Give the backbone structure.
Amino acid sequence: MSEGFAPEAGAKAGTGSGAETADVIFHGGEIETVAGGPGPKGVVGEAGPRPEAVAVKDGRITFVGNLDEALAHWQGPTTRLHDLAGRALLPGFIDPHGHVVGTGLQETVADLLGEPDGDVGDVDAIVRKLCEFADSEVGRRSAWIVGFGYDDALLDGELHPTREDLDRVSTERPVLAIHQSFHLGAVNSKGLELLEYSAATKDPGGGVIRRGDESVLPFGEPDGVLEETAFFPASGRAIMGIAEQDRARFLDKGLKAAASYGFTTVQEGAAELAVLGDLRALAAAKALPLDVVVYVKAAEAIKTPHLVEASAEYVNGLRAAGIKLNLDGSPQGRTAWLREPYKTPPGDPDKEYCGYPALEDEVALDQVRAGFAHGWQVIAHVNGDEAIAQLIRCVRIATKEARPADRRTTGIHCQTAGEDQIEEFRRLGIIPSFFSMHTFYWGDWYYETVLGEERAVEISPAGWALARGMVYTSHHDAPVARPSSLAILSSQVTRKTRKGMTLGKHHCVSGSDAVRSITINAAYQYGEEAHKGSIEVGKLADLVILSANPATVPGEAIGEITIEETIKAGRTIHPPVEEMPVPVPSGVGLKLFTHHC
């Protein structure tokens, strides 16, 4: 039985006056406590009975249990009774991996997303949206014309836009259309010129400049499509080209978007140290409305470790937790590093094409070693199973050298993890954080084109993790997708693709397990399970009110649930009671948006 259900928990005998008066008592709905969370070894415990009421005082949960007892001991003259009216009260959602600054970017530039999040279905629509952005107030201030979110799998002919397509937007200004994965993009001729990419430019290590006319020596004329390390300079320049006053609002927009989906803790994954500095300046000016956890790019962190200042404590809603490695690319973009070849290579006649690594083994190992040595939590972007194998090798060696400890190293995405690799995660204490929304967004694409039937049904293999009693989390990776908590939940329970196929029924989880992945399990991933992730006495009053309980409704109904209210430390942050933008100190423009979503 959890502390909140003990008879003495939450009240002594009295009338609810004085020190025992609650600020608010929630009642009249389905309260999903998610109590009985991961234990000291990551073992999931048993949940207690569902309570009738929750009392909150000074931003903390002070009572969980019977309504009559709550009223008798915690109701005072200033206590607000919050009748849920049949709705559901859950712990506030915790984002296990995303890019909150990038979410603000998504809210700022041209929206190139396809259905159901947007309406782009062909190259003409991309051109139209980019032209509209160019003529907007923000677009006119920007050096580059920028759009985000196109998906070649949804476009006519399943082809990327080319330089010629984007020259229709402008031949005078550089244009960048960012792929939904944020691992690829297309630029116009002016963009190629500014990047100094030509037929004489060799592909950079870990990236590809796609070619049109390959007869142009020595390497072929660029067609505008850029992958990975060839793409990142384009995105860096384009985003830095957005006016400082507009970049400075990325965080505010990202936080508001996250709160609208019920998140009370969010992440900025793979931040430049300059961005971390800007975020600290923003938090110093005014406490952030949500908790923001930052992971610094490993390559930068190990050069100047004193600037990371990782801590388990938040300062005005912000803390640096550790570092992020990036070991490969995107399976939907066919740049992830696989053990076996892609079913259909991306315009490449090489039938043995398996994608490619982002880092050599020794570099990756040095970054993991540095993380362990400095006490930083290490998270790693690993989509392909060969990249996952590289992470396992590095963690195994570094653990042997530094000795085993409770480090909560996390594999981010783990799209094509094999069952053998999930078992190795268990042995090494690596937490898998799945990008389960891939089952919907790219499930059909993987099944038909990228991986083939046998491998596609095993993506985001939560079933294998649950069978081993492991803690796993699931994330949205915004801006790659909208920061939708309900999409995270629905995709795990139903694993439905766009075409309605159930992709790997053996990996479908219960609604309760799905909820755990973005509440108590996510808190455990961050080492914050003592303070967040469940509705228990003593924990922060981070809460979300939903129209129905995703832990108990049929899986097909989860997508119809609405976010009614988001509460951070007892204070409503969505819908906003008043407009409270994050103030922007002079000179803060979020110097560079993070890569490696």
Remarks:
- Residues 1-18, 39-46, 592-596 have pLDDT under 50 and may be disordered.
- Residues 183 and 271 are 16 Å apart (CA to CA).
